[in-house]
Amino acid sequence: MASSSFVTLLLISSFLSFSHIRVSEAATAPIVKGLSWTFYDSSCPKLESIIRKELKKVFDKDIAQAAGLLRLHFHDCFVQGCDASVLLDGSASGPSEKDAPPNLTLRAQAFKIIEDLRSQIEKKCGRVVSCADITAIAARDAVFLSGGPDYELPLGRRDGLNFATRNVTLDNLPAPQSNTTAILNSLATKNLMNRQGLFFSDQSLFFEKFVVAMLKMGQLNVLTGSQGEIRANCSVRNADKKKSFLTTVVEEVVEELIEM
Ligand code: HEM
């Protein structure tokens, strides 16, 4: 707990000790196939300004919500990639990622903020923007609006159709009681930082490294193109939304019987 709190504290205190810095263009990471810097330019040109404006209002009331949104994106990306799977509610097939121990301390309000943004964006642009992209933009704005660096985000993530099991979730998110070695190994495994670790003598260098890590994290195992879907409700797969709960249960029982 002490070491994880240290990582968190380091991140947050670093955000707070700077005011509105835009890191140099050098701070960028390779962009994965299927994402683009101009993805919503024609389908939802105001997307990023809608989110920033709304979050500014939210954070003016309670800046702690920024921490909740950043952590939500991290917990999404580390388990099965940045596919908004962490937002899904459990179903008849089992408990969701949300229900797994590392996610029980995510802020309920963070989930609500993402869904509120989604519905506001749908009103302006139609159902074109994924919950995964909204979560990534919200995390970036959480960093910036709490005094951290601003950076461009590649967009075009699609929403996953499934959530990970409890065990997969536990395997990918380090436990609060993990020691520093385990935490650094976890970050290194995802290729976000090297094992030399956390010491930065120069604060702007820290921001550059941080932005590169955020860009890499935000592109972990993304779904793009025709993969996944654009959810009509961030906590429910579209297929489940159209069906009643009973239909879903019956279908899953039938599927299990067929597999037997
Ligand atoms: C990799 C090892 C990590 C571990 C073990 C870890 C663990 C934790 C724990 C135990 C908490 C406190 C939860 C609570 O009781 O409320 C926390 C909070 C937080 N973590 Fe991490 N964390 C890690 C990495 C990260 C990373 C990479 C980020 C950001 C990209 C992050 C962002 C945050 C934030 C912003 C909070 C405060 C959330 C809030 O107040 O709602 N953490 N973390």
Pick out its properties.
260 residues, mainly alpha, Peroxidase, domain 1, 10 helices, 0% strand, globular, binds protoporphyrin IX containing FE
Structural class by secondary-structure content = mainly alpha
H-E order: HHHHHHHHHH
Please compute the radius of gyration using only Cα atoms.
18 Å
Mean of all residue-level pLDDT scores: 86
CATH architecture, by name, is Orthogonal Bundle
Largest sheet, in brief, is:
none
CATH topology: Peroxidase, domain 1
- What's the level 1 CATH class? Mainly Alpha
Helix content range: 40-55%
Task: Describe the secondary structure blueprint for this structure.
Layout: H1 2-16, H2 47-61, H3 64-78, H4 108-125, H5 131-145, H6 166-172, H7 180-189, H8 203-217, H9 238-242, H10 245-259
Helix pairs in contact: 2-4, 2-5, 3-4, 3-5, 4-5
Catalytic activity: 2 a phenolic donor + H2O2 = 2 a phenolic radical donor + 2 H2O
Cofactor: heme b; Ca(2+)
Family: Belongs to the peroxidase family.
Question: Could you characterize what this model shows?
Answer:
It is a single chain. By secondary structure, the protein is an all-alpha fold. It has one domain (2-259): Peroxidase, domain 1 (Orthogonal Bundle), CATH 1.10.520. The protein has 10 helices and no strands. It has helices spanning 2-16, 47-61, 64-78, 108-125, 131-145, 166-172, 180-189, 203-217, 238-242, 245-259. Helix 3 (64-78) crosses helix 5. The longest helix is centred in the middle third of the chain and has 18 residues, at 108-125. The protein is globular and about 55 Å long. The model is unreliable at 1-7 and 9-21 (pLDDT under 50). Residues 4, 7-8, 11, 64, 67-68, 70-71, 74, 105, 107, 174, 176, 178, 183, 186-187 line the site of protoporphyrin IX containing FE. Its EC number is 1.11.1.7. It holds the Pfam family peroxidase. Substrate binds at residue 174. Disulfide bonds join 44-125, 77-82. Residues 34-235 form the Plant heme peroxidase family profile domain.
